[in-house]
Design goal:
There is one protein chain. The chain is α/β, with parallel strands linked by helices. Helices cover 37% and strands 21% of the residues. The strands form three sheets. It has a 17-stranded mixed sheet that branches. A two-stranded antiparallel sheet has the order 7-8. It has a two-stranded antiparallel ribbon with strand order 15-16. The termini are far apart.
Amino acid sequence: MKTRISFARSVVILLCLCVASPLETLAAVLIFEPVESAPTTTTVQRRKKATPKKRTTRRRTTRRARSRAATPPKTSFDKVMAANSAVLTEATDAEQAGQKIEEGALRAHVKFLADDLLEGRGPGARGGLLAAKYIAAQFEALGLEPAADHSYFQLVQMIGSRPDSMNKLTIKTGANSMDFKSGDEFVAGSDVEQTEVAVSGDIVFVGYGVHAPEANWDDYKGVDVRGKVLLMMVNDPPATATEPNLFGGKALTYYGRWTYKYEEAARRGAAGAILIHTNESAGYGWNVIRNSWGAERFGLLPDANTPALKMKAWVTDEVAKKITQSGGLNLDQLRQQAASRSFKPVTLNAKVDTMLRMQVQRLTSPNVVGIFRGNDPTLKNEFVVYSAHWDHLGIRPDQPGDNIYNGAVDNATGIAGILAIAKACAALTIKPKRSILFIATTAEEQGLLGAEFYSRNPLVPLKDTVANINIDSMNVLGQTTDITPLGADRSTLGKFIEEVAKENNVTVSPDARPEQGSFYRSDHFPFAKAGVPAVSFNSGSKFVGHSESWAAEQFADYNQHRYHQPADEYSANWDFTGKVQQTKLAFLIGLRVANATETPQWNKGDEFERARLKSLGKLQ
């Protein structure tokens, strides 16, 4: 009877495993021997009658010895079932964990982070600290390890300066002078930690202010601009019919970004730099400049190796024309000259002579950092990074009407996204091989300061940071049949994205607005500069049930009426199906990289390849 029960149990186990087990598991089962039971009395009696005692003993002994020699080591029942369970879970674990990315939780995070209570999440302000503490609490609740010396906070030291609304930009030409009004006609900040900053210097028009040896382009031509105030255009020098791919063709390169213009001017010892704004060149209206620069601005604490500008300013196109005209020149003609490699800096018969008054303070604002630890003994010391910025533009007490810049899309949605991804990671039965670092950055709106600080002061070695997936301003308009991961074409990280996209029936589309230079405008960029293969994981433009022109109209409407304005508020009418889709894809891509045999690498010749090779010790 016992033999029958043991045999029946083995059959049941085998049938169960046949349904779900791979062949190798079945093979393990086939060598799993049933428990031996004592023979019955009848069987013994029959054997005794049929064979002499001594001969039977020899044969049994010989057979048992042969059996022991031929039979491989037995696999325990518990081990077989554990192995089978792992195989069963591995195929569906990521998909099941992805189901934890739910609309209700995403909405709840966005609603709270974009609430008036948080006062626009300004760095160093009460609302900003509330946001950071909320994110840290979520990290802790999900079981993430603190990444910053037993803390979830990496403190970023900054200087905050608030320009006096009565500041004027004074331009002198001989005995004459002109004053321009702060906010309406110009905005200005300073890298100098002073309450009064005197700026005086001749104005030099330097075209696009670009020095790019690899493109054989130099707007400075060796002219000494130390102590001067440089007037320049934003964007790249234009491509031509003979050089259609000059500076990326239609796409904006880093040379076209306003951050580069200031950096290059500072490296050359200029006293100040004035950028000329147009809607076309900047990609947004003057209202965005005014709102971004009219309140407190922040910068990282300067060090002896970092050059600084006394004045960093923007002027409207109309003001720029008045300045050049007062100096005896025509701005349109200067623009035409600047479109050529032969352009040389032009000194105007005019100078800046002004005093910038500031309220200045030192402050700290945290990057919020947590680690989901991998399980491979070696690879757990390598990291995939998810990033999103928690800050926005804060509150403007002196502004009439609605003066809270809630930043619901930009970027409460991104923070909700990485919190949902962290929740999905916590739901995994099988941990990834590599670890995953989550970083909610501060002061992105001030020039990517939190991410820049992290790249200079990494909490895990940059050489062991295999990829960065950045999330900024997520999709709240519905599902798409495509995604647009900015920078995917620059590295083999794009291959991982293509694989996951195909498996989930979506396509990968290029940047629909390359002229805006979005790759250089969010927190993945400091990671890229430091050599880490990085993408900014944007939604696509092919919305289910809508035309692509509808998508373009929605973008234009947001850019004109809500981007960096108090109107960027949460709406109960938003369609979060696209946000759920986008978040799940980002989760699956990061998980794929975390488990991959090979790590992403920059394409050969890419502008960031050298930094990666240097971090890996392959270049001096």
